[in-house]
Amino acid sequence: MQDFISTSSSFSSTSLLQKRLHYIIHNRQEWWVYGIFWQASKDANGRLIFSWGDGHFRDLALAKVHNANVSDMEMFYAVSAPNCFLSEDDLIVHAYNSGSYVWLNNYYELQIYNYDRAKEAHLHGIRTLLCISTPHGVVELGSSQVIQENLELVQLIKSLFGQINDHGFNFVPLGDPMDTKTITMGSDSGNSDESSAMNKDSPKKRARKSTTAKNHVEAERQRREKLNHRFYALRSVVPNVSKMDKASLLADAVTYINELKAKVEELKAKIEVSTKKLIQKRNCVSSSAVVDGTNINININSSFVDGMEVEVKIIGVEAMIRVRSPNVNYPCARLMNVLRELEFQIHHATVSSMKEMMQQDVVIRVPHNVTNEEAIKSVILTKLSFA
Questions:
Q1: Whole-angstrom Cα distance, residue 213 to residue 195?
Q2: pTM beyond cutoff 0.70
Q3: 333 and 279, same structural domain?
Q4: Nearest by Cα to 42 from 191, 214, 269, 281
């Protein structure tokens, strides 16, 4: 990564464009991490397109990550080189068409404005993103700090990148769609020779190179767009996100997944303990119930069988039945079928569900010959266990 940035900087260090970017990054009081000039040109169909003209990354920021992992801002700067902008929905195109500037310097502005580049910049730690329109392209500046709007800086950049004759810029006119617009110094013989060599290429060769480059740019753009959508989806399901950069998001997702695994193991342990207790109780209790004149012999330990818990409370001529069970295999329908088989008259019923468990509260009219709460509980639990 450092080789890419240093090579890019050294290759064009003598150009006036590189000097202008270097001046803004290193001589201004604001802490700008990088500067990019997006050069305006036209494609084979005559559409206005913005591609990498030149860029500069702050050396001090590179020194901080020397012999360490590549920072998010370095990555964002490096992968910007093959980018190409031509849609009116792109931030660079919008800034150029406005003839002014776009200054985004807080979380809400970077997120609210529906610009993929602004969202991607924020994910890589950029807190201030500035795009300034010039006659021949757009100057983009990025910072890891929040920088307030400064019209004096905007005018300075417009002046530095807007003069042509006085500062020796030589822009290829935008009227010819087959020309690739380049910025060179009038006194720079190396760049002049390179420009002459490019002009000697045949139109077919230039068109073939242009098509290959565009296909590569489009494929890279689609890959980055898909990756960003995946990160947006991941961020929406992770409850606690410490920071907005991608590395922190991935770390938070790993932590969250480990917490879920721990909860699953804890629930499994609780289920095993409950099952063992249930088996032990089943082997120690036997009861008999009589409902509506019918003798029912049941071997049952308590009010808790197969994850179901039944409670019965008789008050006068009514009885309140509460059944808690896992919300599987239609527990509500099973309970209603049991009550119908027992010919219990239902006065009121409520159902609620929480965390894969269902609770049913039913008020019935108690038959005249039934006064034992345990008898009702036992017969309901027995029938539910076989339903």
A1: 18
A2: no
A3: no
A4: 214
